[in-house]
């Protein structure tokens, strides 16, 4: 009963989506979804590379590398890459 979606059902779903979100917002939503996917992919790659480098003993890490990382901007992003400090707990209680 619900196993197959044909062309009429897909067209109906697309029409409902366009009516709900509006035709003007759909390209912006697709663009932001693409940016999010690129960021997720680059972060996953960075974590994978980081785990590979930490598994091979190459001596102590340099102080510059451990204190600051640079996040690269996605292609087409209007912001530039910037250094980001690792979060530290500096709250006083």
Write the topology of this structure.
Blueprint: H1 7-21, H2 25-55, H3 63-67, E1 68-71, E2 82-85
Structure characterization notes:
The chain is mainly α. Helices cover 55% and strands 9% of the residues. The chain is built from 3 helices and 2 strands; from the N terminus they run αααββ. It has helices spanning 7-21, 25-55, 63-67; strands at residues 68-71, 82-85. Strands 1-2 form a two-stranded antiparallel sheet. The model has no long low-confidence stretch (mean pLDDT 75).
Brief sketch in words of this structure:
By secondary structure, this protein is mainly alpha-helical.
Strand count, sense and closure of the main sheet?
2 strands, antiparallel
Stretches with pLDDT under 50, minimum 5 residues: none
Shape: elongated
Strand tally is 2
Count of discrete alpha- or pi-helical segments spanning 4 or more residues: 3
Secondary-structure element series:
HHHEE
Overall radius of gyration: 22 Å
Strand content of the residues, in percent? 5-15%
What strand order characterises the main sheet? 1-2
Helical content band? 40-55%
Average pLDDT, rounded to a whole number, is 75
What's the N-to-C terminus distance? 60 Å
Main structural class: mainly alpha
Q: What is the subunit organization of this protein?
A: single chain
